[in-house]
Specification:
Length: 209
């Protein structure tokens, strides 16, 4: 299981914002990408922190598209023991897996790697929180991997999560995650359990077909 630290969380979030972001409109010299919605960010982060759930989603994609790369990616996650070595547990709240990311985001904001904005409605209430990845933040991901190649894992996994998420928004992604019984049946305030063995069984069954 991965040891927690604000700096490690910040690094993971930075790669998520890059993989799941879309072009800023209109383009600016300072902003690289925009990642829309805190609920969407929490959904991405859940799959980053729970590789067995990500592998399960990849197997679903394999069953749907018959693209062997999805199966191979799921197999690699288990072969590398990521559910044991990379797992960072999350607690289930009313709207699914959630954890405050204030410390990580504060680190990113203090270095101007990420800027936070929001769309407001009536009574000045924030309807959606968006995260703008600055050009500096975007380049920092590449620089980090260049200086420390082991960090390529974050880039690779964030890209896989982005493939699983597609263009879905936060609400749709949360609903997708709730389709896993182990996730949905977790008591409020409880830690969402691992499903590594279930994924291992599915892989074995697919291999024998």
């Amino acid at each position: 299981m991965t040891v927690r630290s604000p700096h490690r969380d910040a690094l993971r979030i930075l790669f998520v914002l890059r993989a799941g972001g879309s072009p800023v409109e209109p383009p600016t010299a300072e902003h690289a990408l925009i990642f829309k919605g805190e609920a969407r960010l929490q959904a991405f982060d859940f799959w980053m922190r729970n590789p067995d759930y990500l592998a399960a989603e990849l197997l679903d994609l394999f069953a749907e598209a018959q693209d062997k790369s999805y199966y191979e990616a799921a197999q690699a996650i288990l072969d590398d023991e990521e559910p044991d070595l990379r797992r960072v547990p999350m607690v289930r709240y009313f709207f699914g897996a959630y954890e405050r990311l204030d410390d990580a985001l504060s680190l990113l904001r203090s270095r101007d790697l990420v800027r936070i904005t929001g769309n407001k409605g009536a009574n000045n209430k924030v309807l959606e929180t968006d995260f703008i990845l600055t050009k500096t933040g975007y380049d920092t991901c590449s620089t980090a991997v260049s200086l420390e190649p082991i960090l390529q894992w974050y880039a690779d996994r964030a890209e896989l999560v982005a493939k699983v998420a597609g263009t879905m928004g936060g609400t749709a992604l949360k609903q997708k995650q709730y389709q896993r019984a182990s996730y949905a049946e977790t008591k409020l305030g409880g830690v969402i359990p691992a499903i590594t063995e279930d994924v291992r069984v599915r892989l074995a069954q697919l291999q024998s077909d």
